[in-house]
């Protein structure tokens, strides 16, 4: 696979992340829908954005939903450019929003916090793409 092919695939991943954020926004605007859906999509947006950057930088990514594990795989040159403050919450909400049982229902506040954390990751990653002259595929 050529570098151009890898960039195109990475761009598609980033586009999917953007779409997940857009749907999370729409869900947050609906008072009659469970906030857990926005939590799950927010985590997915951050995960896809990190995997897009890993694909762009290294040509591969790890099969995991743990966002800290993914961020730890980024090259040292990117250290500090990707916000990590919300990664633990997003990873936790990924599990809690998908399965009933021992977890409390996600609140609208948790969903808004998750969405903001995911947006920060997406914005940082898309900034790295723009810096390289690569746009998210639409």
Kindly report how far apart the N and C termini lie: 21 Å
Strand content: under 5%
Number of helices: 5
Overall strand count: 0
Poorly predicted regions: none
Biggest beta sheet attributes: none
Order of helices and strands: HHHHH
- How does the overall form come out from the CA principal axes? globular
How confident is the prediction overall: mean pLDDT? 91
- Helix fraction? 55-70%
C-alpha-based Rg, rounded:
15 Å
Structural class: mainly alpha
Describe the structure.
By secondary structure, this protein is an all-alpha fold. The protein has 5 helices and no strands. Helix 1 runs antiparallel to helix 2. The chain is globular and about 45 Å long.
Question: How would you describe this structure in keywords?
Answer:
single chain, 138 residues, mainly alpha, 5 helices, globular
Q: What's this entry about, in short?
A:
The chain is mostly helical. The protein has helices at 3-28, 36-58, 67-72, 87-96, 108-131. It starts with a helix and ends in a 7-residue tail after the last helix.
What does the secondary structure layout of this molecule look like, with pairings?
Elements: H1 3-28, H2 36-58, H3 67-72, H4 87-96, H5 108-131
Helix pairs in contact: 1-2, 1-5, 2-4, 2-5
